[in-house]
Fold:
Amino acid sequence: MFTGLVEYVGTVESLERSDSGARIRVNAGPLAAGLAKSGSIAVNGCCLTAVEISGECFSADLSGETLRRTSFGEMKPGTRVNLSNVP
Structure:
């Protein structure tokens, strides 16, 4: 369960849109080391599933609904985001 405690402030590396949604890539710094593929991480309070991990970055897929109902749709490279592991 997400506790609301911010563990790290990451940075959006990219947001690539598709017909069905988007894929976001976030530099998660030291949190990435403890994240497994298909693991959960809260980004600005929204629980996302890591679909790819590379170094200090992870990627997650966003649905069209998530883009419409959160601030993810407005994010650009360089946007800072609050991160927290979700056990």
Q: What stands out?
A: The longest strand covers residues 8-17. The beta strands are 8-17, 21-27, 40-43, 46-54, 57-63, 80-85. The mean pLDDT is 91. The helical segments are 64-69.
